[in-house]
Amino acid sequence: MIRLAAFDLDGTLMGTDQKIRPRVLEAVARTQARGVIVTLATGRMFNATVRFARELKITAPLLCYQGGWIQALDGPVLRRDTLSTTLARAAIELGEAEGWHILLYAKGKLFLKEYLYPIAFYDALLGSDVTVGEPWEAILATRDGVDKVLYVAEPEHIPAMAEVLQPRFAGMAEIVRSHAMFIEVVPLGVSKGSALAWLAQYFGIPREQVLAAGDQENDITMIEWAGFGVAMGNAAPAVQKIADWIAPPVTEDGAAVLLERFVLDGSQF
Questions:
Q1: 3-class DSSP state of 98
Q2: Helix extents (H) in 63-177
Q3: Cβ–Cβ under 8 Å, residues 116 and 152
Q4: pLDDT at 267 > cutoff 60
Q5: What CATH number is given for 85-187 in this structure?
Q6: How far is 240 from 229, CA to CA, in rounded Å?
Q7: Domain range 4-80+190-264, CATH architecture
Q8: Which residues, 6 or more positions from 230, have their beta carbon under 8 angstroms from its beta carbon?
Q9: DSSP result, 5-69
Q10: CB neighbours (10 Å) of residue 58?
């Protein structure tokens, strides 16, 4: 029996149009009406996740910043892991030396030096609460903690960037590819999987009663940890390889099909 279900957002509950389709909305609503706790597990910051949670009528704590920030819509922050100023500065300096497009998440906001893509790109994938042009050191000096550093690049460049980042931050931070165009430096130990495990324990739900679904490499940890891990039909090959089941792609309402088959039909595996 499934008692907790965690879903990635982009590429899982919604496609590139950033719209959650009616069949998915209905399936999530019916799932919650049955008493199953549903949450979102995303790399997005909390403020950029809220509108989707409200649309889905989710009240459970949300797993944001790759799991580094856990908070319910109208509640306090339950857990937050941050990068040290030293690590954040090192990630910024490396990015600048390599000529990468750097985005810094701190104080619940997103900071960048300049827009390199249309503003709509940032609004759709990263959130609209963006501050442009503030010096990096001024942000770091607030000592409020950095949630993550993200680099944006064309998809074909991301693997080479990972080869630079992995040895530089080995044992100090996690390097995760969260989108075809994104690679991130997040606090050591932070992952969607560890956050989902924390949330399950918070609710007193055993691993065997947890479902997780996603499409990108940053979803692998939660898909592996959950009792029933699902990859979308549009998921990266590495994600599909470790999943217990592969749902139809997001364009075919795969998340709804998943819930209808394994939660809502009454049989449950």
A1: helix
A2: 85-98, 119-125, 136-140, 158-169
A3: yes
A4: no
A5: 3.30.1240.10
A6: 10
A7: 3-Layer(aba) Sandwich (3.40)
A8: 211, 212, 213, 214, 223, 243, 244, 245, 246, 247, 258
A9: EEE-SBTTTB-TT----HHHHHHHHHHHHTT-EEEEB-SS-HHHHHHHHHHHT--SPEEEGGGTE
A10: 21
Q: What is the pTM of this model?
A: 0.93
> What pLDDT does 14 receive?
97
Structure tokens at 111: 């900071």
As given in the structure block, the two tokens for residue 105 are 């998440």
Rounded distance, CA 162 to CA 178, Å? 12
Q: Name the percent of the chain lying above pLDDT 70.
A: 98
Domain ranges of the chain: 4-80+190-264, 85-187
Put residue 122 in one of left, alpha, beta given phi > 0 → left and psi -120 to 50 → alpha. alpha
**Which residues, including other chains, have CB under 8 Å from residue 217's CB and lie 6 or more apart?**
176, 177, 178, 236, 238, 239
